[in-house]
Design goal:
The complex is a heterodimer of chains A (209) and B (132). Chain A has 209 residues and is an alpha/beta fold. Chain A folds into 2 domains: 92 residues, Rossmann fold (3-Layer(aba) Sandwich); 103 residues, no CATH class. Chain A contains 6 helices and 8 strands. In chain A, the strands form 3 sheets. A 4-stranded parallel beta sheet of chain A has the order 2-1-3-4. In chain A, strands 5-6 form a two-stranded antiparallel sheet. A two-stranded antiparallel ribbon of chain A has the order 7-8. Chain A starts with 6 loop residues before the first strand and ends in a 34-residue tail after the last helix. Chain B is α/β, with parallel strands linked by helices and 132 residues long. Chain B has a single domain, classed as 3-Layer(aba) Sandwich (Rossmann fold). Helix content of chain B is 37%, strand content 20%. Chain B has 4 helices and 4 strands; from the N terminus they run E-H-E-H-E-H-E-H. A 4-stranded parallel beta sheet of chain B has the order 2-1-3-4, with helices on both faces. Chain B is globular. Chain B starts with 8 loop residues before the first strand and ends with a helix. Classes of the chains: A alpha/beta (209), B alpha/beta (132).
Chain lengths: 209, 132
């Protein structure tokens, strides 16, 4: 991916990817050192610059590294997929490459473990399912109970690791005394608010300039 | 890595609760010439960023030495070091570099002999693999 570029800026992001130890200042340093060592071994002359800004999803924070971005042949962004694309949007003449492989947006469920919790699909149904999202937590996104692949509380997609989302929903709603709510048949979800309706945009009128 | 020049030095990171104390008992020894002994608060201080940075800035190799297993002053520092050195070796491997450039060993405060053997063994390895 970096072949052919002689000046590369590795640009970290100081917010979410820093917290999940993927693309913050520390990880930028590790990648930069690794690349310099590998380039030295292979006799490649590549200048590796490194910087980390507060966020790559807000235009203002790029100001401090504007010159360094312009000076680079390519920028390897260590932000999530959002930051990578926004960087490319703010700098239309710069070659921008992704340094991470963004899988999802999740929570820190334990030290060193992150797990997906929300699909950001709009028309939110969490309130009807005891605070657990069937769209994200059920591998099949089922809205009216589990499939036949739910065994011993685990999902057939990954019987050793992944909990059955519907088992979680059932157990929690039972504990909360809300099981009767599950007797209601959930109608088809409005999927137009998710990716299938095209890329989402939110406008907050009172925040506009 | 480049072939190790005469000036290239080996860095040995010593936990101040064990290996650093052992190093005080090392006799003056020409075999240890070219080795920099550096005190760290715990082997758990070691991580990929530190190890790679040392290599990048000229160390021929980095040996971290912590307390014996289950005898860490901070309880799990040496277990953390083990995971982090292992992660660093994986990074080196993935980048086509010699993973043997970083190593971890464990010695007690009383074991200067073992510390010396550990350092010399690492030095031998680097000498034998300096051009790879």
């Amino acid at each position: 991916m970096l072949t052919g570029y002689s000046k590369v800026l590795i640009l970290g992001c100081g917010t979410c990817v820093t917290v999940c130890m993927a693309g913050g200042e520390k990880e930028v340093g590790i990648l930069a050192s690794t690349l310099r060592l590998a380039n030295r071994k292979e006799g490649r002359s590549v200048a590796i610059d490194e910087a980390t800004i507060e966020r790559q999803c807000d235009r203002e924070f790029f100001d401090t590294v504007r010159d360094r971005i312009s000076n680079a042949d390519a920028v390897l962004s260590m932000a999530c997929g959002v930051g990578v694309q926004f960087l490319a949007e703010v700098f239309p003449d710069t070659i921008v490459l992704p340094g991470l492989d963004t899988k999802f947006y999740g929570a820190t469920v334990g030290q060193g473990v992150w797990a997906e919790r929300c699909s950001g699909c709009g028309s939110c149904v969490i309130a009807d399912f005891g605070g657990i999202c069937p769209v994200t937590r059920c591998s099949k996104g089922l809205l009216n109970g589990p499939c036949g692949g739910s065994q011993n509380g685990k999902c057939e997609v990954d019987p050793k690791g992944t909990d059955c989302g519907w088992q979680l929903i059932y157990d929690r709603m039972k504990k909360l005394g809300q099981l009767s709510k599950l007797e209601t048949v959930t109608p088809l979800k409005d999927w137009s608010t998710t990716r299938f309706g095209g890329p989402g945009t939110i406008v907050k009128e009172d925040a506009l300039p | 890595m480049r072939a190790r020049s005469a000036a290239a030095r080996i860095t040995v990171l010593l936990c101040e609760n064990s290996a650093w104390k052992a190093s005080a008992e090392l006799p003056a020894d020409s075999a240890l010439r070219g080795v920099d002994f550096v005190k760290i608060p715990c082997s758990g201080r070691v991580d990929a960023g530190l190890l790679l940075s040392l290599l990048e800035h000229g160390s021929a190799g980095v040996l971290a030495v912590g307390c014996p297993k289950d005898d860490c002053t901070f309880l799990r520092g040496n277990y953390r070091a083990e995971k982090r050195v292992s992660a660093t070796r994986a990074i080196l491997r993935e980048a086509g570099l010699d993973e043997g450039l970083v190593r971890l060993s464990f010695v007690s405060a009383m074991d200067a002999h073992r510390l010396r053997e550990s350092v010399l063994d690492f030095k031998r390895y680097l000498d034998d693999n300096s051009s790879s």
